[in-house]
Sequence to fold (552 residues):
Amino acid sequence: MLSLLVSCTLGSQTIQAPDYTWWNKAKFGMFIHWGLYSVPADATDLNGNHSIAEWYLSNKQMKPGKYAEFAKQFNPVKFDAKAWVSTAKHAGMKYIVITTKHHDGFCMFDSRLTNFSVTKATNYHHDPLKDLAVECKKQGIQLCFYHSIMDWSHPDYIPRRKWDDRPTTPGSLNRYIDHMKGQLKELLTNYGKIGVIWFDGGWEHNAQELRSQEINDMIRQLQPGILINDRNQLPADFSTPEQTIPGNALPNGRPWETCMTINDTWGYARNDHNWKSSTDLIRKLIDIASKGGNFLLNVGPTDLGEFPSEIDFRLTDIGEWLRRNGSAIYGTTKSPFKTLPFAGRVTAKGNTLYVFTFGQPKGGQLELSGLKTPILLARDLTGGTVKISGDTLKVWPKTVDSAANVYEVRLAGKPVVDNFLNQPDSAEFMLPARLAEVIGATARYEEGDGKDNIGYWTNNKDKVQWEININKEGDYSVEVLYACNPESKGTTVSINGLTQQVENTGSWTQFEKKVFGVIRFSKGHHKVVIEPVGTFSGAVMNLKAVYLTEKQ
Fold:
């Protein structure tokens, strides 16, 4: 993670580079999706199929004028900024990102540039963001703003929804961008220090059409050190995987933050009861921290301004766990281990490792395979007993935590780990995508929704490699399990000098094993590198694994 403060000059203006210091320490934030959609609070589409509540206007294919009538019913009289911020704080969250405007165009702040806002179109006539800004400052929580680029209600935003029959001839995207700049200026000058601008809804246009660089420069001038996410078609300061956790830390130390719902929808929905358990959410937080990321966990308040009780219960559980174990999360960096021989994760902080176990390990043994730095001492954060034997801990926890037990391991110096994958006793040695090192600009590991592969491999300079340890010298057959659609076939790839053209497997999700040839390995450490060479068809493959099989 980056933390240096650097400045550059744009014309006569000095722009301060993003300040990651607080964000790197925070690790855990609250996402709040709140708007008119909390009035119907319905997470279904026209046909009654499951969807997400904040897309209600789109789900029901409503005319913007009809949707705007919900403003008459929006009156959050139970909204209590002090209680909201206190809930986030007691849950162990260090920052709040709230929707200032979602895709529906309704503003949750007092904007001079529109009447379609909480202060002008509702009977509430109050700016909740003002209250949140005051309480965040009082309680030491960093306030951040989500802002949608897409706007289904604004007359100048193009393209319109297919059922929106308002005339498009007076519409002007360029005029809309001027309007958006004006609203961003309001948000960045009227509410004190803002930690992040979290864009969304930018996928219908490219960065040039959105004037993204111009907007980002303005944001940095108004709020020096602010962080900007990657959703206005520029990479900016951090990546935002949604509803999924990457298999590993992002390449080249790229900062990232997973945003995720507690049930299935972002906005409040009366008909969505698929709640994740507290244990699941805590383990997700641990997993994200172990890969160097931040966790932005969403809540969807009701139209009255309250958090559903199911959310309160889970945030309370998470907060209680973090009060016992927060030192193992806050301010940590990614695990130095690529794999662990037990169910758990590791984070690091200077000369200290924090080892998390999901359930009691077999025989009570935690082997930190490959750790070269001597262990000085170790302790169980529940008060149990820990004994050290080389790179192995023998643990007797005082209590077994249903989410995770945590062990603090102090080392003689910075952790140095031999992360070579060791050849198993079986003839076949599988090198899975999730354990590969991805080097480059676009290729990355994909996980969730049935995905377990390296994809987005659209740069012919990117490569994938594994560091392995061969126990037996010999000839090994090399096979690659990959998928490729018909349009992208034909890229020539090399594996340690073996070259083949990528073949069509039928689709990006239809994986087939292809033989590449034979490589002779001596006993010891090696790198297995797969990379494009020569012919490039625009995309390489979706790579699931490489198999090395000893030839008899």
Notes: The CA atoms of residues 16 and 224 lie 5 Å apart. The first helix runs from residue 21 to 26.
